[in-house]
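Look over this one:
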Amino acid sequence: MKMLTRLALNNNKKNKARSILIMLVIFLSTTLLSSIALICYGSLKYQKDNVKELYGTFYGAYKGVSEEQIAEMRKRSEFTEIGKSAVCGEVESEATVSLQWMSEEVGMMTNLKEQLEEGSFPKAQNEIAGERRFFQKLGYENVKIGDEIKLSYRRSNQEKYQETTFVVSGIIRSISEELENQAYVGYVSEDFYTTHFSENARRYMAYFSLSEDLGLNSETAEIEAKELAEKCGIDAENVAMNKTYLFFVLSPDMESIMGFILIAIVVVIFSVLVIYNIFQVGIVEKIQEYGKIKALGATRGQMKALVFREGMMLSVIPTPLGILAGIGISCLFMNYWISNMAPFGAETKISAAYISVPLLLLCVLAVLATVWIALKKPMSTVKKVSPVEAFRYQGEGKRKKGIRKGYAVMSPNRMMMANLAMNKKRTVGTMFTMGLSCVLFVVAVNYTRNVDIEYAARQDLPFGQFQIDLSYSTTDTAYPENNLDSVLKENPLDAQLVKDLKSIEGVTEVKIGKQLYAHDEKGELHSIAVLDRKLFEKESKGAGVLGTVDYEKASKDNAIFNGWSHFIADTGYEIGDTVSFQLGGMQGEIPYQGELQGAFGSINGDWAITEDTYKNLGFADAEENIGTIWVDCKKSDCKNVEAAIEKLLENKQHYEFSSFAGAVESLDSMMSMMKTMGYSFLLLIGMITFMNMANTMILNVITRKRELGVLQAVGMTNKQLNKMLRNEGLLFTLGSVVISLVVGIPAGYGLFLYGKEAGLTGFDVYHFPGVEILVMIFVLAVLQIGLSFMLSRNVKKESLIDRIRY
């Protein structure tokens, strides 16, 4: 047995090129497996360790609940903890500012108490607490505990604002970066809420936790919560579950971790094929050596053991190095991820225990199993071949009887095709394994291409760098001047503003979108979005679209569409019904009747009509009824243009200003993690792909040194040799690309459809990764040509005699 071990070691030393390539593939495979496993384990364990700090401890909450319904909840043993909170009203401010009360139980269940920086939560009727940003929006820059502040507050749109004086009792820590147009909340006492709301008018958000005795998991908890809601007289549709908390506290569903398992399986299969291909490509040369060993008396079992030890010896060094590299990558990722997280609650616990020794041992076993599986076919081939057959072994393909077709004159291309045709199985196998690696690349790039932060931001800001929207209400009876019908009649987004925006230095284009108001038969006010063809078609491709959504048909029929398909039942209309409105704008009102042909998933309006319908109805003036203005400029001019726009808007009301950069920033922290993981996976796959390609070319040259030497001895020039090797490489590349496109594009599109169905951000419209695929083809071709050139130079360093004698 010692002799076999020494022989295996010497074989590996003799075949350095093959050995190095196999070790690199094993290293990269181990790195990929261990890093994926540790990142999965670390992210799950980190969130499980910090789940209370990050997501609170409540299972869910019921919206719009009365005191009687909460009393019913308290009678049921399934609820182990119940807390109440309530919205007290809105504060007069340019930003969205509201007041809220929460019980002590809710403060504990949402972990809000842990965010208290100084002071305490309100107890007395005139006390208030909030983030510093909340007070800054009210004009108090450096507020302190005990300071007296004044604000104008109202309970609903049916009341006027009343000035109220509060004493600051607590300051809450800000736990995330400030985003554009975000909402701000101030917390008041229970006395304040009960004083301002009669018992019949009180409606709560009821937070709850459920008993562990119910044996719930993250899938069944919501079903149970809805059933309990119905038993307590609560609408089951008003249930909001704390799904992330439930996932980590209760047993996770398999679908949530299948992604990681699937990637690991793909990596194992891919590694098996690559390592198998590396062994199999060089089998013609090595089989003769194995035949000599068998002729000396080695048994079939010993021959099998020899190949097995050769492969396993090559795993000794790269496997632990790959484990260490995987640990390093996972640690870097976890540190980056944790540092960029905006925790829901208190400071989180960072533990070094995110490295799992059992999991790493499992990765080692997976890698060794991968090598063993890859060696099974070579081991079977070696043990079956007799000493005599070994000396004439040319692969497992069967020769066909007949007349061989030849040529009077041989060119480098004909020599290349003859070589590939003689080794069809090897050629197809090489193309298949290279193609598979490219398939993984194409599938992965379909993911990263569609996880597009800028594209996702364009869903809210479809054009330009800046957007100015009308800010209005449709239910404000106390201040009717805030309602859309009044705002449009005194529209702050007028023709003069558009003219002034166009005159700003650096502005390249200004576009406008129209808006109308509508009164239904009950006198209720609605908003009507006017969509041009481009915006209409964009919205028609979004999720949640119902009915027939066709611009030409809608314009011809003067049809109307609902803006929110999820709530279409609340309107009392069904698709196909006739909708009656009194449409209005700056010019006055026009009676309207039209067919409800469909509904969009969600748009900036209760209802929508086409721009052609808008004109057909008589609203023809392009400078009236402006609901949105988009301003475009070069990125380098954004700062100056933004300052100029803000100056123009200084004395205006009823508008909301947002920027594309702000929309991107708000999505960046959420999306960057996904893209980082995607591109890291692409990088490792690309490295393994190149190793496979390099192995194929190197072994192809090594095993044909004698053949190439003979060809040059009978007249093949160095230029012709270079051309033959280059074209062989390009042919392998072409075959790999064809396989990757035929298999990878449908698989990538399937991944996109799954992401869209799951509601992943950036997966609304499929983006074909054409640029990325072209880059892949270009890089493969360049690397292949470069590798062929280097191999050709390396071959020519040896004399013809040495090569023929090889």
The chain is about 55% helix and 15% strand. The mean pLDDT is 82. Residues 472-653 form one domain.
